[in-house]
Structure formats: structure tokens, C-alpha cells
Write a structure and sequence with these properties.
Radius of gyration: 19 Å
Low-confidence stretches: none
Strand order of the largest sheet: 1-9-8-2-5-3-4
Shape: globular
Order of helices and strands: HHHHHEHEHEHEHEEEHEEH
Structural class: alpha/beta
Length: 301
């Protein structure tokens, strides 16, 4: 069997490692009760004082939930910002959280699906969204799965923070791979049993070549990467949702989307991904990343 191929990134610039990294690492060592107080302060600053992307959030909520009252959308808005600040400190905590504590706080409810895939030596694609805490799912995944786990990410323009996030995501041996290299890495590792996680609600770089479908009451462009790779490599797809069950406590749930992609017409898998993401958002609307400019592309008639 060929050696398993891992992606790596160059070390951060020395100034970042000496001056910036120690600050984040130090913060990560604080107990959760202190981090939650920091999150409370961030909420006042980000939401109350600076109004970070508040216009984007309000427009997204208004277009997505026209049936809800302004008061209901305002409640979702405030709860979103509280959750957003929690995710920020939780991501920092990922730099030092122990495997035992992470496994208690991010519970993989449907582990049997991954165990069965591993027993059958079947690789699969996992599709998820920016609901709950997607960073902790990546961080936790190799702790619960026996097969090799590969998580797709978008490279950050700042090399220091790109290295920091890569370091955080790979602490427990997950293979974090940038989206522009994922097909090559998956092809090289096809002799190994793997699960590869894609974020399904990323906005395409342009509307050209995207798949358009109805999503949260709007015509929305979806990238077809996971569908195309599933067809090319003949991999089944599952959807993983993340439910927030308490402060810094989550449950990850998984269900099958498609076991044989060769039987599906073009676009059908992407449609099922969009439906799964919308269903997840509607169950806990405050915990999706509403500050994301998801609808910046418009369909040309």
C-alpha cells in the first residue's frame, strides 16, 4: 500500500511565532468559565459597539425568514452574535484543549456510521455547514474515527494565521488540506480508507459553473466540488449536522445523502446537500454563520 500523503504548511514568520502565537496559546489555557466571560465582553464590543457586519446579518435574516416578525429576527440576530463570540473563544481553546475534554464537549452521536464504513473499508465524503462549531468537528474527528480523516479548508491570506489555524486543526492528526489540493490528495490516498469533510455552504468565487438551487427562499449558487469528486472517485456521501446543546457543548449527527453517486443525475447530490443544510439551519437558526456574504452572486436570467 502506498504511503499515506499528508499536507503540510511552512512555519509562520518568526515574528508571528514569537509575538502573536504565545498570546493565543496563553488564552487557550484559560478555563472555560473565564473564556465565556471574555466572550461576553466580545459580544458587547462586536455587536453593541462596532456592529460587525450587522447590515449583512440583518439582510440575510430578512431574505431567509420573510415569514418571521422583525422581533423574532432580532432575537435570532442577538443570539447569533453571542454564539459567534463563543465560537471565537472555542477556536482559540482548540490550541490546548485535551482530547478527553473535547470528546465530552463535541459528541459524535452517530459514530456507528463511520465504524461501519471503516469495517467495510469504504471511503466516504462528509458534507457539513457553518453551523455550530465546525472547527471543533474537524479537531474532534480523528479522535472518534479509526479511518484517516481529511478536512478541506480555505487558505488564509495571512501566512501567520494560516499556519495558526493549520496547527490548531491538526493537533489530533487530522489531515487538513486546502481546497485547491484536495482532489490530488484524495487521489493519492485512494488506497487508504478515508473520510473527507467538505464545507457545503461556502460561496463560490463566482456564479459561473456553480449549481443554482432554492435555499432559504433565495436562488443560491452552490459549489459542486463534493458532488464532482464523489462521482469521480465513486464515494458515498453523508451529511453531518452540529447541534448546540449548551454553552461550548455540541452534538454531531450524521445521515446518508447518497451511497452510490453514479446513479444520481447531475446536480441532484448538490440539491440534497442544500436541503440538508437548510433543514439544519431551520432547526437552530441562530447558530449558522449569518455574517458570511453567502448571496453575493446573483443568477443571470
Amino acid at each position: 500500500m502506498e504511503d499515506y500523503q499528508r499536507h503540510s504548511v511552512p512555519p509562520a514568520p518568526w515574528a508571528f511565532r514569537v509575538l502573536v502565537y504565545p498570546i493565543f496559546k496563553g488564552l487557550s489555557l484559560l478555563p472555560f468559565w473565564v473564556l465565556h466571560r471574555i466572550s461576553d465582553v466580545l459580544f458587547v464590543l462586536i455587536y453593541g459597539l462596532f456592529g460587525y457586519r450587522k447590515k449583512v446579518v440583518r439582510e440575510n435574516l430578512a431574505h431567509s425568514f420573510p415569514e418571521k416578525s422583525a422581533a423574532d429576527r432580532k432575537t435570532i440576530e442577538r443570539e447569533f452574535y453571542r454564539h459567534f463570540c463563543d465560537v471565537l473563544v472555542e477556536t482559540i481553546k482548540g490550541l490546548s484543549i485535551s482530547a478527553e475534554e473535547l470528546s465530552r464537549r463535541m459528541v459524535n452521536v452517530d459514530q456507528s456510521i463511520y465504524d461501519e464504513l471503516n469495517r467495510d473499508q469504504r471511503s466516504a465524503i462528509v458534507v457539513m455547514s457553518h453551523c455550530g462549531n465546525w472547527e471543533w468537528i474537524c479537531l474532534m474527528s480523528q479522535l472518534s474515527c479509526e479511518q484517516k480523516v481529511q478536512c478541506v479548508y480555505k487558505t488564509l491570506s495571512n501566512p501567520g494565521f494560516d499556519w495558526l489555524m493549520f496547527h490548531q486543526r491538526t493537533r489530533f492528526q487530522v489531515n487538513a488540506v486546502p481546497m485547491e489540493q484536495i482532489l490530488r490528495i484524495m487521489s493519492q490516498n485512494k488506497a487508504h480508507c478515508t473520510v473527507t469533510a467538505f464545507i457545503g455552504d461556502q460561496s463560490p468565487s463566482s456564479g459561473k459553473g456553480a449549481h443554482w438551487t432554492s435555499f432559504l427562499n433565495q436562488e443560491t449558487a452552490f459549489m459542486m466540488g463534493s458532488e464532482k469528486i464523489a462521482k469521480k472517485l465513486n464515494l458515498g456521501l453523508v451529511y453531518l449536522s452540529c447541534q448546540k446543546v449548551g454553552r461550548s457543548r455540541y452534538e454531531a449527527r450524521t445521515h446518508w445523502l447518497c451511497q452510490d453517486p453514479s446513479l444520481e443525475p447531475t446536480g441532484a447530490i448538490t440539491d440534497s446537500i442544500a436541503t440538508a443544510i437548510e433543514n439544519e439551519i431551520r432547526q437552530q437558526p441562530a447558530y449558522w454563520l449569518w455574517s458570511h456574504r453567502r448571496w453575493k452572486h446573483k443568477k443571470v436570467s
